[in-house]
Amino acid sequence: MKTYLLICSLFVFGISCKPKAQLASKTEITRIAFGSCNRQDAPQPLWKPILADQPELWVWMGDNIYGDSPIMDTLRAKYARQDKKSDYIALKAAMPIIGVWDDHDYGRNDAGKFYAQKKESRDLLFDFLGVPTDAPERKREGAYSSHLFGEGNNQIKIILLDGRYFRDTLEKMDKVYVPNEEGEILGSEQWSWLEKELKESKAKVNLIASGIQFLPIEHPYEKWANFPSEREKLLDLIASSGVKNPVLVSGDRHIAEVMKLTDARFPKGIFEVTASGLTHTWSGAAEEPNQFRVSDLITKLNYGLATFDWKKGEMTFQIKGEEGAVYATQVINIQ
Questions:
Q1: Which of the listed residues 2, 24, 200, 258 has the most CB atoms within 10 Å of its CB?
Q2: CATH number of 2-333: 3.60.21.70, 3.30.1360.30, 3.40.50.20, 3.40.80.10?
């Protein structure tokens, strides 16, 4: 797990913050932006409104580029193209960047653990994210990681789950995924790591992120519910770990929405925020059912913004778009 001190200075777009390992003094983080589904060869109109929001951190939620190739030189060139976007260069100068992948930056649509180039592709992802060569996540299999921001009573832990590297195979019948009742998403080592990260977390807020959606069970696309036992295992673990103020964050879908699950494990509810569609969205999802949705279904270009008011004891998640438009707002009490 990485711990960060945010060292801030004035920057033309707002505040420039660079990460430094091992916090030396107390500092607070109050604004985190996140998003997914970003074509490196498409117009990217959302970086300017993201910068205008002055977040202290950007989190890639997967499909960070559309690589879609087993040829590593092709993926490398596509990452390089994204890195040369002027507004993205400004973002990188203004704040730390962390993230995880989904399938298109993994290298093959809907791929899992049998993708032959997964280790090489993982290394390219880490290069793109600026993960140091001596970082512990480079010494293990997969792309999962955790990051701790702030100190004292107002810490935020971000747990980034890898839903590709260890994921078992899914089969389709009539173009619809058949649930894999016994299959795994995370694999045994990542499960052990996650259990430790949750049970040992002292953070006041814990964001748990995955490229694919956690809560939905009705739509026919990629989701945790395609592996029913894994979904239940994850929810059981979050509930039993005693981790404070967990919030689920996801991408992948080319839509945005806010969801809430309330059951015996989560009597006060657990929220999921999906932000997906930095460069393109899917208007055909306009009528998609989701029993957990508590916002509108958003099919405009979007990103997520989480704001933390430590004095009021509230965190506010917004789905935002071009020119700073706000499409959804969800206030969650910090217990």
A1: 258
A2: 3.60.21.70
